[in-house]
């Protein structure tokens, strides 16, 4: 685990009660797992309800109310920690927020999850947003050394590397890993999940190679999951070419097609646990929470070479970015997974230890910033 330290000398006389953090967002599994498993640690303010900002949100946190300068003026906290959720903010709005926080002398921590926004077809808006946030932060964090190197190249800033904590709860992890250890080897299930088809995804580019490869592997099954908004005739984000291809291949018996709405966590973990391999169809991106969930559940990830997915944890990779795709490398990764059945997941003990270190790091960082 790299760069996970805040020197005691940095803390000095600033040691104090737990910091109160305005976390954007707060109600997200990544953020929840930055706190100790046993509870305690920094106090993160609950997300305000976007429809009634004076109330706490029960479930909905987007668009984040804490990004509004008027909220930052009216509420008390020690540290402002931005994770994600600013997709729809203009650079001007972000500059106004930063100016408000600076005027109040509130330290800004920014964890750089995305150096290229997976929801944006063009990178320009996100680059402009980063040009506001990265230079303005009092402390920068990111998830991988490669991302930290890119941040240093682009802005001359040093970002501490703090790995992504577990996504799946430990009880579910234990059940899934026990079941996987007892699973029969007669079948081998390869999953491709196109969700609601983010801009970063290009499933049609890689599907022919997957179909051809799986056809040659005895007992192998290709399962494709997609949301109704992409494949239904009246779907808001319908992709006719993808729908036609998947329907034809499913009718030919070359893949299993599962069409459904957004899966709640329990159903999502059950689905991922049923897979031997999950193939990520991204042509650009930076990091992946999906990858981390697969690692928790013992599902092997086949990841593209774009971004820094391979630095998050052990994966099998294939060549895929915006300008390049190598079908043979994808075929090789799937065949390797089929033949070697690698165990690339993270154990519960590893994840528990990691979470403890990540929580201690964040607590020490917040304390060091409070003067």
Enter the CATH topology name of the largest domain: Rossmann fold
Number of helices: 15
**From the structure provided, what is the oligomeric state, counting identical versus distinct chains?**
single chain
Strand order of the largest sheet: 2-1-5-6-7-8
Supply the CATH architecture of the largest domain.
3-Layer(aba) Sandwich
| Uncertain residue ranges | none
What value does the average pLDDT take?
93
Radius of gyration: 22 Å
Structural class by helix and strand composition = alpha/beta
Beta-strand percentage range: 15-25%
Largest sheet: 6 strands, parallel
The counted number of beta strands is: 14
Q: Which series of helices and strands comes N to C?
A: HEHEEEHEHEHEHEHEHEHHEHEHEHEHH
Q: Please write the CATH class name of the largest domain.
A: Alpha Beta
Shape category: globular
Question: How widely separated are the two ends?
Answer: 28 Å
As a percent range, the share of helical residues equals: 40-55%
Attribute tags:
371 residues; alpha/beta; Rossmann fold; six-stranded parallel beta sheet; 15 helices; 16% strand
SSE topology:
Layout: H1 8-11, E1 20-24, H2 29-32, E2 43-44, E3 48-49, E4 52-56, H3 69-74, E5 79-82, H4 91-103, E6 108-112, H5 124-136, E7 139-142, H6 145-155, E8 160-161, H7 170-182, E9 188-195, H8 203-215, E10 220-227, H9 228-231, H10 240-251, E11 256-260, H11 265-273, E12 277-279, H12 289-297, E13 300-304, H13 309-312, E14 316-318, H14 327-340, H15 348-369
Parallel strand pairs: 1-2, 1-5, 5-6, 6-7, 7-8, 9-10, 9-12, 10-11, 12-13, 13-14
Antiparallel strand pairs: 3-4
């Amino acid at each position: 685990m790299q760069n996970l330290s805040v020197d005691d000398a940095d803390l000095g006389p600033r040691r104090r009660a737990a910091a109160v953090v305005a976390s954007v967002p707060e109600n997200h599994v990544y953020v929840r797992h930055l706190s100790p498993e046993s509870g305690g640690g920094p106090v993160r303010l609950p997300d305000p309800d976007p429809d009634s900002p004076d109330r706490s949100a029960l479930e909905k946190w987007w668009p984040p109310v804490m990004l509004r300068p008027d909220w930052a003026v009216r509420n008390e906290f020690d540290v402002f920690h931005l994770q994600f959720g600013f997709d729809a903010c203009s650079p001007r709005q972000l500059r106004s927020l930063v100016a408000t926080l600076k005027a109040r002398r509130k330290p800004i921590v920014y964890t750089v999850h995305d150096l290229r926004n997976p929801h944006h077809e063009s990178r320009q808006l996100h680059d402009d947003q980063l040009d506001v946030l990265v230079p303005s932060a009092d402390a920068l964090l990111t998830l991988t050394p490669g991302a930290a190197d890119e941040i240093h190249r682009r802005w001359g800033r040093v970002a501490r590397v703090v790995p992504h904590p577990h996504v799946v709860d430990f009880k579910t992890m234990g059940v899934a890993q026990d079941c996987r250890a007892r699973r029969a080897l007669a079948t081998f299930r390869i999953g491709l999940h196109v969700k609601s088809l983010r801009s970063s995804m290009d499933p049609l580019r890689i599907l022919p190679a997957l179909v051809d490869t799986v056809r040659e592997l005895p007992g192998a099954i290709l399962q494709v999951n997609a949301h109704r908004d992409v494949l239904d005739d009246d779907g808001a984000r319908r992709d006719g070419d993808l729908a036609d291809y998947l329907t034809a291949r499913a009718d030919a018996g070359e893949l299993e097609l599962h069409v459904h709405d957004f899966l709640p966590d329990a159903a999502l973990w059950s689905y991922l646990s049923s897979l031997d391999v999950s193939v990520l169809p991204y042509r650009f991106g930076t990091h992946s929470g999906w990858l981390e969930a697969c690692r928790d559940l013992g599902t092997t990830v086949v990841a593209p070479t774009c971004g820094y997915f391979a630095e998050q944890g052990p994966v099998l990779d294939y060549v895929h970015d915006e300008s390049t795709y190598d079908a043979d490398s994808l075929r090789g990764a799937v065949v390797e997974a089929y033949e070697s059945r690698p165990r690339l997941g993270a154990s519960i003990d590893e994840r528990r230890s990691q979470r403890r270190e990540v929580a201690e790091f964040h607590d020490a960082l917040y304390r060091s910033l409070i003067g």
